[in-house]
Amino acid sequence: MTVQGILYAISDPVRVSILVELMDAECAKNCTAFAKINKTSIPKSTLSQHFKILREAGLIRSVRKGVELQNRTRCAELRKKFGPMITEILHAYADES
Fold it and tell me: What mean pLDDT is predicted for residues 83-89?
């Protein structure tokens, strides 16, 4: 987990939407739950790439359940290492839109 990796991961509006929705979710979600983001259909291959970037940045954790990957945020670990930085960035995104 690096600041540069996190900033790159959340530089894309689709990834920000995915991250915000995962942060608000009570349980893990697979990537097909995000097939429509902001009323736009996104191909599964594109979603997989977005999830890979979020995972490599350390923002989410994926656990294999059968043939699917269930995704959830790593909020507690992120808060411990970066404090409110990520939450503040996501609030700034929300204020802009």
Answer: 85
